[in-house]
Automatic annotation (TrEMBL):
Organism: Chryseobacterium manosquense
Family assignment from sequence similarity: Belongs to the nitroreductase family.
Tagged with keyword Transferase: no
Protein name in the entry: Nitroreductase
Requisite cofactors: FMN
UniProtKB keywords: Flavoprotein, FMN, NAD, NADP, Oxidoreductase
Domain Nitroreductase residues, every copy: 11-168
InterPro entries registered for this protein in UniProt: NAD(P)H_nitroreductase (IPR052530), Nitroreductase (IPR029479), Nitroreductase-like (IPR000415), YdjA-like (IPR026021)
Domain of life from the UniProt record: Bacteria
Molecular function in Gene Ontology: oxidoreductase activity
Database matches in Pfam families: Nitroreductase (PF00881)
Record's keyword annotation contains Hydrolase: no
Amino acid sequence: MEKPAVLKEIIESRRSIFPKDYTTEDIETEILEEIVNSAKFAPNHKRTKPWRLKVFKGDEKNNLGQHLADIYKNTTAPEVFLENKYLSFIEKVEKANVIISISVNFSGLLPEWEEIAATAMAVQNMYLTSTAHKVGCYWSSPGMIKHLDGFLGLEENQKCYGLFYLGKI
């Protein structure tokens, strides 16, 4: 198949695939590295490369899941707190093989929207590379991400814009 046809097929077959549909099989290290590395080829004005990606696997990933559940518990009024929802944060993270936090580093050299757009293009590259390798993925941006900055060790000029879940399908 010619390159344009391959590219068209990958673009048209790209879908968000959720952790409930992932297998327990690990994503090969080489494939994970290729997925993450594809982000750096996103266009970005003045070469600021504003995306900040942190890969979570194993215990570190499970700690992230517990932290998300705790954020939900600590920011939800007791009268509307749902135990099932609390547990669902932990379960969703456990079903993913890898989670990548997606943050933006605002350089001050460009309008913020340009650096957010460049980061979104970096994530699109990861989506397309995942699709090419038959790895399920999706970008989640729950309201509680605004509480992740400290956990992620972000600096004052950085902001988390979501979590990228990955798993074999």
